[in-house]
């Protein structure tokens, strides 16, 4: 035992040091640049209001200049009172530990300096495999030799202040507080800059054994004793006068505990509905190659990378969306009514709201409405964290006639004019689709139709015929270019290259889609055919304050939070589609006639400015949709039962999405200048 205790000191000047020299040198270089894991913050659009945080270790890196001298002095007094005299390893401390350990026939006293402790913490924190973690923390003589050697080398590369700063940002203080910033906030609800001698001594005393000296225990005897020990040491080192130390020791430990929020479920009640946008952020982040090669690496970056993330939600539009889907009141229904608002030209999500409370607590939720789910399965209301609005792994909801936009846009982009006319019967037999015979919702829809009137009245037979002319596969591929994804086996099968040509029912919206996808797809039409990927952020900053970037295939570095856009169809085709899409809303197109009536003619009057859009319902009105847009905003709203798609919404509730979109566009754009749609050219009007 005595030989083992003496070995590290001998090994520093002997064979052990030579054997590990190369490996130690390489690791020392890493430690001069490696930084500990740091908390990522998610902010409201003002860039100041913290909505939540993501972390494995709650930590915010703090410079020495932003810490009270009290904590610097207290940690030196508590852990290494010869810190400023030695060069990484304290021979006196090693000798003292050797004697103490020899007398006790065990390890009763350590000899680790602050520098050695930092080396151990940094090796542990920078480890990428379980083996590296074990090597950094195992109690062996070889590990101690390496640690000492690295401490000596590190002090040649870094100043005492740099080492002390890294140490105070790495140390664990208990209660998930990693680093002095977290410890100050969790125990005293203040920044390290404002720590008093009593508070600093309390925190410094925790490092040796966070659980044993925890001041948050009901019995503070051990914590007080340890704090007083540190205050005495501070006095002995001249940091405090004897009188000041005595006065400080007479004070009780007064805590002001804070629990830092973590993950989306911790978003405050004031911003509860923002939890759905936060959840979308997580799913979006996990798909970004900029943050790692796979989902695991990307989420690790989010929890350890110290990013500053600003959501793209617009508070005014978000408030309007919440109000108009009754997010705070109408949570007691199996039918989810949700809305997503996207910004044309950027793809930034400006609002996400649904009549649900964002919460992990499902205890009071009733049983699922799906009879196949079983009595123990809870419904998705009033509480849920399911991604009902999109951006997750849920398939979505059949979107009905909102899909008629895709064959119409494909036809326009292929050169077919808006005036393309067909005498649409009530029922149409398709030879292209092997005799499939869809019909219209009403006999009043029969007769001569153009794209304006066919879209305005939602004439099924006209759009099946139009889809035949342009090719269903072309409409499917265009929908994909506009961001739609097929998440069910049935949809993937129908959308496959060898079957898409026969997917006649595609134009009737038999495929599942999410409000996020539909809002963003229609936003591309509002942006003259320029599609922008949906994005939940306006800024992402690295821990050093620089924008987070990614490398394009061409090697160009671009900001992750910048819009990613591409032209999908010609501007003229998109403008023509918009002109036809003004018909369903009761608006007046620039170039054609809507045929006398429309499916959502109240929208124009509610919005009070030029607006385009499309209604959509499915068989037996199991779900109902409306997607609407102005030049500034695009919004998609649905109502459906996410648990049981066969639980019909009914015709009586089909107006709810129409009102939600119209009122949200009205309220969200209130006070902004009215913009006009650009009319299509003569060539595409026909």
Automatic annotation (TrEMBL):
Q: Name one GO biological process term.
A: cell wall organization
Coiled coil (UniProt feature): none
Q: What is the lineage of its organism?
A: Bacteria, Bacillati, Actinomycetota, Actinomycetes, Micromonosporales
Q: Which reaction does it catalyse?
A: [GlcNAc-(1->4)-Mur2Ac(oyl-L-Ala-gamma-D-Glu-L-Lys-D-Ala-D-Ala)](n)-di-trans,octa-cis-undecaprenyl diphosphate + beta-D-GlcNAc-(1->4)-Mur2Ac(oyl-L-Ala-gamma-D-Glu-L-Lys-D-Ala-D-Ala)-di-trans,octa-cis-undecaprenyl diphosphate = [GlcNAc-(1->4)-Mur2Ac(oyl-L-Ala-gamma-D-Glu-L-Lys-D-Ala-D-Ala)](n+1)-di-trans,octa-cis-undecaprenyl diphosphate + di-trans,octa-cis-undecaprenyl diphosphate + H(+); Preferential cleavage: (Ac)2-L-Lys-D-Ala-|-D-Ala. Also transpeptidation of peptidyl-alanyl moieties that are N-acyl substituents of D-alanine
Give the source species.
Micromonospora chokoriensis
GO MF terms, alphabetically ordered: penicillin binding; peptidoglycan glycosyltransferase activity; serine-type D-Ala-D-Ala carboxypeptidase activity
Decide whether keyword Acyltransferase is in the record. no
Query: What name does this protein carry?
Result: Membrane carboxypeptidase (Penicillin-binding protein)
Family per UniProt?
Answer: In the C-terminal section; belongs to the transpeptidase family. In the N-terminal section; belongs to the glycosyltransferase 51 family.
Q: In its keyword annotation, does this UniProt entry include Zinc-finger?
A: no
Q: Boundaries of each Penicillin-binding protein transpeptidase domain copy?
A: 339-643
Per the UniProt entry, the signal peptide is: 1-23
Specify the superkingdom.
Answer: Bacteria
Q: Output the SUPFAM superfamilies linked to this UniProt entry.
A: beta-lactamase/transpeptidase-like (SSF56601), Lysozyme-like (SSF53955)
Annotated PANTHER family: BINDING PROTEIN TRANSPEPTIDASE, PUTATIVE-RELATED, PEPTIDOGLYCAN GLYCOSYLTRANSFERASE
> Would you tell me the Gene Ontology cellular component terms?
outer membrane-bounded periplasmic space
Matching entries from Pfam families are given as:
Transgly, Transpeptidase
The UniProt record lists the Glycosyl transferase family domain at 50-234
Instruction: Cite the entry's keywords alphabetically.
Output: Carboxypeptidase, Cell shape, Cell wall biogenesis/degradation, Glycosyltransferase, Hydrolase, Multifunctional enzyme, Peptidoglycan synthesis, Protease, Signal, Transferase
């Amino acid at each position: 035992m005595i030989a083992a205790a003496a070995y590290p000191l001998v090994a520093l000047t002997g064979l052990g040091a030579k054997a590990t020299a190369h490996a130690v040198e390489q690791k020392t270089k890493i430690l001069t640049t490696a930084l500990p894991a740091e908390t990522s913050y998610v902010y409201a659009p003002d860039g100041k209001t913290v909505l939540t945080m993501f972390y494995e270790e709650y930590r915010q890196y703090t410079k020495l200049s932003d810490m009270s001298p009290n904590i610097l002095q207290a940690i030196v007094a508590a852990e290494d009172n010869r810190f400023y005299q030695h060069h990484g390893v304290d021979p006196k401390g090693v000798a003292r530990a050797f004697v103490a350990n020899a007398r006790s026939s065990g390890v009763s006293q350590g000899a680790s300096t602050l520098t050695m402790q930092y080396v151990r913490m940094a090796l542990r924190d920078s480890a990428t495999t379980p083996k590296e973690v074990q090597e950094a923390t195992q109690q062996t003589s070889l590990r101690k030799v390496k640690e000492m050697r690295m401490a000596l080398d590190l002090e040649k590369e870094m100043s005492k202040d740099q080492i002390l700063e890294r140490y105070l940002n790495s140390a664990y203080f208990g209660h998930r507080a990693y680093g002095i910033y977290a410890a100050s906030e969790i125990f005293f609800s203040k920044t390290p800059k404002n720590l008093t001698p009593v508070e600093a001594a309390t925190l410094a005393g925790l490092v040796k054994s966070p659980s044993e000296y925890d001041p948050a225990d009901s019995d503070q005897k051990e914590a007080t004793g340890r704090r007083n020990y540190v205050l005495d040491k501070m006095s002995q080192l001249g940091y405090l006068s004897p009188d000041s130390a005595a006065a400080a020791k007479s004070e009780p430990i007064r805590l002001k505990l804070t629990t830092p929020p973590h993950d989306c479920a911790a978003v405050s009640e004031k911003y509860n509905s923002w939890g759905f946008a936060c959840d979308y952020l997580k799913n979006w982040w996990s798909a970004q190659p900029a943050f790692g090669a796979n989902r695991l690496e990307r989420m690790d970056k989010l929890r350890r990378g110290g990013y500053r993330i600003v959501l793209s939600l617009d508070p005014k539009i978000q408030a309007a969306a919440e109000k108009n889907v009754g997010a705070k009141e109408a949570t007691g229904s199996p039918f989810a009514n949700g809305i997503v608002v996207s910004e044309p030209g950027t793809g930034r999500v400006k609002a996400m709201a649904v009549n649900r409370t964002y919460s992990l607590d499902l205890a009071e939720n009733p049983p699922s409405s799906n009879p196949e789910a079983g009595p123990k399965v809870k419904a998705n209301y009033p509480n849920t964290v399911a991604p009902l609005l999109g951006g997750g792994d849920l398939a979505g909801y059949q979107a009905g006639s909102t899909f008629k936009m895709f064959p119409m846009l494909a036809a326009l982009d292929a050169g077919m004019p808006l005036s393309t006319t067909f005498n649409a019967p009530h029922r149409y037999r398709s030879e292209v689709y092997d005799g499939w015979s869809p019909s219209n919702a009403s006999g009043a829809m029969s007769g001569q139709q153009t794209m304006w009137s066919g879209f305005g009245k939602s004439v099924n037979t006209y759009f099946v015929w139009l889809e035949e002319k342009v090719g269903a596969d072309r409409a499917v591929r265009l929908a994909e270019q506009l961001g739609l994804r097929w998440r069910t086996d049935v949809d993937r099968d129908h959308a496959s290259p060898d079957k898409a040509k026969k997917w006649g029912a595609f134009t009737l919206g038999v495929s599942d889609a999410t409000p996020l996808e539909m809002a963003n797809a229609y936003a591309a039409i509002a942006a003259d055919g320029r599609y922008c990927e949906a994005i939940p952020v306006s800024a992402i900053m690295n821990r050093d304050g620089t924008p987070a970037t990614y490398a394009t295939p061409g090697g160009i570095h671009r900001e992750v939070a910048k819009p990613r856009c591409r032209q999908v169809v010609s501007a003229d085709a998109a403008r023509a589609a918009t002109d036809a899409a003004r018909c369903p809303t009761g608006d007046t197109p620039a170039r054609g006639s809507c045929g006398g009536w429309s499916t959502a003619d109240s929208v124009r009057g509610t919005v009070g400015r030029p607006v385009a859009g499309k209604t959509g319902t499915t068989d037996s009105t199991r779900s109902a949709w409306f997607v609407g847009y102005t030049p500034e905003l695009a919004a998609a709203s649905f109502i459906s039962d996410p648990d049981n798609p066969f639980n019909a919404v009914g015709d009586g509730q089909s107006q709810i999405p129409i009102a939600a979109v119209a009122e949200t566009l009205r309220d969200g754009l209130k006070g902004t200048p009215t913009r006009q749609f650009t009319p299509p050219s003569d060539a595409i009007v026909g």
